[in-house]
Design brief:
Radius of gyration: 23 Å
Number of helices: 18
Helix content: 25-40%
Strand content: 5-15%
Structural class: mainly alpha
Number of strands: 15
Strand order of the largest sheet: 3-6-7
Largest sheet: 3 strands, antiparallel
Distance between the termini: 34 Å
Length: about 575
């Protein structure tokens, strides 16, 4: 575990005081790589309970596994002396812990974030999507699971975990509701996309109303909500040291229900999850149906979180075995078939087609003529990324920011691949960052392709919204990925771009244009996750130990085969 013993003296130097670490352990993060780092930052490192190698959890589980009490007593011993509540950042603190003066935007951001809080029976349970009263509310007055994640991280980093705990428990309760669209009943484990609090002034009562996709545009259930819930539960546990929430029978059951939906056997020949369009952050028709990178990366990260949150009781052991098998298969598949760099692009360019048998090189029968022209110029000499989608005769070569950043944080990307992704971002700064970070995907689709793929969606015109728009919320993901790869200067540069305009423009939801120069044509102002994403990015740069809430170290047992096998076995 990393125990920080630091304090800020009047001259900004660091010395001698006990501080609360927001992580149990960050073994893989070498802070000596961080430029402009605080002086005299000393860390003792040892392995945390949740960063064990998969090899240490036997596939068949040992004949005499340790008791649940033994496991958690060992965990509690490990936590002894680490957690110290009350460390705060941002608007409540006159100086940052490492001597950096807070930016003037920080106070405004905290004030606006607190105004977005939603209360249910006197307790805060989340934050609404946007505070913009100048536009029709639609569903922007609701608490979205995915939108609340950066808000939750900001509150955890600021020493306010109770809000996050309330949110986790309330959404867990909503999971148990009966979920129907027309006459069809959704799976028991589906988490809501969003919820809202209805106030009845006559009866003086409050009730929760949840949306599981039955009210969403396109009527698509949110595949990502369950993954974000598990990821946030782990972040809460890492930040607070409080294992009691994850140990609750209700939380254990909630995780198992989510995992049952994802690990069920069917007709799949791939370990990836088959999804409909509009099932994640890109919640409109944008051609991401199939096996989108965002869902696969979140799936991988949620599996790694669940692996250490599940109890090793009778029910938990079964899921742990299934998770380990899936992680091995999924990491191999993603690192082998979704990864694209200059060499792999050249290999695809030279593919033969119509190969039959297990020795086929072009396993998905991708037509080389389907390679888009832009990708040849986009791919740098040094760099690479996980492409958007891979399926039968289909490769979506678009860059998707969220999926690639989550791949880095979860260690789905190997260290070499993580470095290559950062190289790509630096090499293609104008395309992927431009004047306002960050492109949700690149490039935009337009003309005839736009008509076919989006169904002539007027909100997703070229370089707008999800079709190549720039989303400030992605700052926190970029910052976390930059810190994990030892390149915080990239994040600092992106944050400085955002600080030049974000507050002046009223914290828009997204920006339009090839360089992200224009406030989005339908963007809500005072978008909560634009605000919280900025705060999380700033707090992570201020105190990189916060990264442990959302990052996993590489597991050596998931090392990929360096050379592609000619057989299909994984």
């Amino acid at each position: 575990m990393s125990l920080l013993s630091v304090d800020v003296s009047q001259n900004g130097g660091i010395k001698n005081v006990d501080s609360s670490s927001s992580v149990f352990e960050m073994e893989e993060f070498d802070f000596s790589r961080l430029p402009d780092r605080p002086r005299n930052l000393n860390m003792e490192r040892q392995r945390s309970f949740d960063e064990r190698s998969l090899a240490e959890i036997p596939m068949g589980l040992s004949p005499h596994p340790p008791s649940r009490a033994d496991n958690f007593n060992r965990v509690l011993d490990h936590l002894d002396g680490i957690y110290s509540p009350g460390r705060k950042s941002g608007f409540n603190t006159p100086r940052s812990h490492f001597g950096y003066e807070p930016h003037p935007m920080t106070a405004e951001a905290w004030e606006t974030l607190r105004r977005s809080l939603v209360y249910f029976r006197g307790r805060p349970v989340g934050t609404i999507a946007a505070l913009d009263n100048s536009e029709e509310k639609l569903n922007y007055d609701q608490v979205f699971v995915r939108d609340f994640v950066p808000s939750a991280l900001a509150f955890l980093m600021n020493g306010e975990p109770e809000i996050v705990k309330n949110f986790l428990l309330k959404t867990l309760r909503l999971q148990s509701w009966e979920k129907k669209i027309d006459r069809f009943q959704l799976g028991e484990g589906v988490m809501p996309a969003s919820f809202k609090v209805l106030h009845d002034p006559v009866r003086n009562t409050e009730t929760l109303i949840a949306d599981f996709g039955e009210s969403a545009i396109g009527r698509v259930a949110p595949v990502d909500s369950g993954f974000w819930w598990i990821i946030l539960l782990r972040a809460y546990t890492k930040s607070t040291g409080d294992l009691s929430l994850a140990e609750m029978p209700e939380c254990q059951k909630g995780m198992r229900l989510i995992l049952s939906l994802c690990l069920s056997e069917g007709f799949d020949t791939f370990p990836t999850l088959l999804c409909a369009d509009g099932c994640c952050m890109i919640d409109r028709r944008m051609g991401v149906y199939g096996y989108p990178i965002e869902i696969q990366a979140l799936f991988f990260m949620a599996l790694r979180c669940a692996l250490v949150l599940l109890k090793q009781d009778t029910q938990g052991k079964e899921f742990i075995e299934r998770i380990i098998k899936r992680l091995h298969a999924l990491s191999y598949h993603m690192r082998s078939y979704f990864w694209l760099d200059l060499k792999q692009l050249n290999d695809i360019y030279r593919y033969k087609t119509e190969e039959y048998s297990h020795t086929a090189v072009n396993k998905f029968n991708v037509m080389p003529d389907s390679l888009p022209e832009w990708v040849f110029d986009f791919m740098p000499m040094h760099g690479g990324y996980f492409i958007g989608n891979v399926g039968p005769s289909k490769m979506d070569f678009r860059w998707f920011c969220l999926g690639n950043c989550i791949a880095i944080l979860s260690s789905l990307a190997t260290p070499e691949q993580a470095t290559a992704i950062m190289d790509l971002i630096e090499s293609r700064w104008e395309e992927l960052v431009g004047d306002m970070p960050l492109k949700v995907c690149y490039p935009a689709i337009e003309n005839h392709e736009w008509r076919i793929v989006t169904g002539c969606d007027p909100k997703n015109t070229r370089w707008s919204y999800h079709n190549g728009g720039s989303w400030p919320v992605l700052l926190w993901l970029l910052t976390a990925a930059c810190i994990k790869t030892g390149r915080p200067q990239i994040a600092r540069r992106a944050i400085e771009l955002a600080e030049a305009r974000l507050s002046k423009d009223g914290w828009p939801e997204y920006y339009d244009g090839k360089l992200g120069r224009y406030i989005g044509k339908q963007a809500r102002r005072y978008q909560t996750w634009s605000i919280s994403g900025y705060l999380v990015a700033k707090m992570m740069l201020e105190d990189p130990s916060h990264l442990g809430m959302v990052a996993h170290e590489e597991d050596k047992q998931l090392k990929p085969v360096l050379k592609r096998s000619s057989s299909w076995t994984v």
